Amino acid sequence: MTTTAPVPVETSGPDVPSLVAGLRATFATGRTREVAWRLAQLEGLERMVAEREDDFAAALAADLGRPRVDAWLADLAPSTAESAFARKHLKRWMRSKRAGLPLSVQPGSARYVYEPLGTVLVIGPWNYPVYLTLAPLVAALAAGNCAVVKPSEHAPAVAALLAELLPAYLDPDAVAVVTGGPDETQELLAQGLDHAFFTGSPEVGALIMAAAAPTLTPVTLELGGKSPVIVTADADIDVAAKRIAWTKLMNSGQTCIAPDYVLVEEAVRERLVEGIAAATRELRGGASDGLRIVNARQATRIAGLLDDHGGRVTHGGHVDVDAAGGPTGEPTIVVDPRPDSRLMQEEIFGPILPVLTIEDVDTAIRFVNDRPKPLAVYVFSRSKAVTRKVTEQVSSGGTVINHLMFHVLVPQLPFGGVGRSGMGAYHGRWGFETFSHRKSVLTKPTRPDLSLIYPPYSVKAEKLLRRFF
Ligand code: NAD
Asked: Quick check: pTM over 0.85?
């Protein structure tokens, strides 16, 4: 079996405590609070992506076998878009906001101001190693923080490239990259940084939260889970099939908001299954080889999901852990696996799509609600009553009606999980909020200085106070 253990990236430069001390010293100068500094960082980031597109594409191809157009579509373009959106709206986001005053606190004026948190940590995953590392960094810089970035060790070429480029295009005293794996991440967390933003699995998310607890480092956890697609009999089945196939194929199913499994009414199940299989063939231009899986460990895990599920494999079914160009998995459809099988318990994170028969939308809602809250829920139906019901009755990070995954591209919408799929959100203003402290500022005049408020309280004074408070 080929082992594709992560290639260690050479790190040079100061040790973690000195590096963090350097970032803190930069933050203490106050320069990162200036709007001009923040805009310059965002411009630098966009310039880096534009000027070094070839290098990013090559690194993504090396780490994940990602075609150039996919590298641009899924990693580079959304990184630039996130930064450009922040740049456009930053001044408005930064403005202090006025607040009203209850009678008891008048006269005076109240407002809240956005303060940067300080020196923050961004921990990236391997599946979209550029976008999911740069988008949180955009939010951190827009909010005026210094940042240390820890890219995933499972995308070593991208990690090395970020380590080279970020200090070259951004303020090197304010942004640092630490490469490595769990040990380096744990060491960073032990520094008691001002926020830790993690994208990864719920299992590691729990370890991050535990490591952040002793220093009370606040965390944002962008996690994963099993995102279902509910398809009712009245849906546009052809379009549903094509959209499900396309989003499942993306990055070989290794996407946090990929359709994990489908719940479909029996009347349209066969049509949907055949439609997904046909769309998969068409979208792949007739290619019949397996889809690239990031490494042997993941491929072995995915192959294991195909053991003992009790369902019917209608298409695909083969995972090649030892394939010459790296491990691969065939696009696979499994109809009606057992709900208690590993395939239906674990996040699949690969090109296998279970399709389960349901009686009606109520059964589907119960099925989803009996399990941990997903990162996304998708519903295909022509009935507004059905889509409303799913939206109202199922809790999830996000919901998309009659499509999948596109909500991630809307910077006006908060992106994040709920329950086991995560805590906190980012994108656009939501990212700025995540990396800012909202500080209340109350200004009171010194006169009049009503004696009523000070003890001792007479009966009359107490009566009056009771009317105001
Ligand atoms: P992962 O949890 O294995 O690793 C993510 C990061 O955590 C890496 O940088 C890694 O070095 C670090 N890490 C791993 N073990 C650690 C430990 N013990 N202590 C400290 N740090 C540790 O995640 P992954 O495999 O890179 O990504 C896949 C998972 O991420 C899936 O569950 C997927 O759904 C989820 N994901 C979520 C989103 C989202 O936006 N919500 C996006 C992409 C991926």
From this structure: yes
